[in-house]
Backbone:
């Protein structure tokens, strides 16, 4: 079941996931919690740029940050990714249903009984 999310929440999630660096940060932090410094060292960009990517992901609630002394640790939130996956799955089901109905209409127009799969020839 798809949890009801506001359009703004959904927009933030997909905006955050639209960037390859942010997707990689999510992937890395799903594997293990990492410090912002560790993450920044993995990319050919400034610490500030990586921090901005992390802020976008945190705003979308795809990652969480916590302090351990002076170190900021980042970890991905699998439940947030599951919500995005559920939303995509609901759209997939919607479009599959529409395609199935379109197939049935086209088969009917072609004189093929709807109970037969399209690959099976009919005897005329």
Residues:
């Amino acid at each position: 079941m798809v949890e009801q999310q506001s359009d703004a929440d959904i927009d933030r999630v997909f905006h955050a996931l639209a960037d390859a660096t942010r997707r990689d940060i999510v992937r890395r932090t799903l594997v293990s919690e990492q410090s912002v410094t560790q993450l920044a060292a993995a990319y050919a960009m400034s610490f500030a740029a990586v921090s901005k990517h992390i802020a976008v992901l945190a705003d979308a609630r795809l990652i969480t940050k916590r302090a351990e002394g002076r170190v900021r640790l980042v970890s991905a939130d699998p439940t947030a990714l599951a919500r995005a996956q559920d939303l995509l799955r609901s759209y997939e089901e919607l479009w599959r249903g529409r395609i199935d109905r379109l197939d049935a209409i086209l088969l009917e127009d072609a004189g093929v009984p709807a109970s037969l799969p399209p690959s099976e020839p009919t005897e005329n």
Remarks:
- The two ends are 45 Å apart (CA to CA).
- The chain has one domain: 1-113.
